[in-house]
Amino acid sequence: MVTPAPSLPKDFAQLSLAEAAELLAARKLPPVDQWHPERTGDSAMEIRADGSWYHEGGRINRPAMVKLFSTILRREPDGGHVLVTPAEKLSIAVEDTPFRAVEMKSEGEGDTRKLVFRLDTDDLVIAGADHPLGFGSDPDNPDPRLHARGTIGNGLEARIDRALYYEIVDMALADGGEPPAIWSNGTRFPLVDA
Hints:
By secondary structure, this protein is an alpha+beta fold. It is 16% helix and 34% strand.
């Protein structure tokens, strides 16, 4: 049985990194990468660039439904997205990225910093080697993203909201270093991808 992501027990801004890590450790997602059902189809669903979910043209307004569907979302090797259960696999249109990073908490400084992000589904992700940050290769048109789940390079990503991106840039510039970069969980992420 798939259960939706639990609501955060308290305000994200008041969570310590240790509490965020405990929540992450307790979270169990369905093993969607192990499910390969024969029955396929189209879900008639889409995730728009602003992170809103739609079914047959109507917006899904119940956060619990969006959280539930987000737990069975997977990216396919061809780059398409599907909702998958042991019984069926249904395509879903994704306009940009399936998730949005809407809040961020930073603890530490420089190479000891850890950044934890809250996604629009209330999932928490700590940026690091397993969840890299990327900013695109054009410094004039940044493309800030966070790897949220799945295989790096072909997994599910979260668009980092512009205000959070500017906070990251401020932290990276304050840390110094050339080229500017942000550290999280022992990994250095240049603000411009090579």
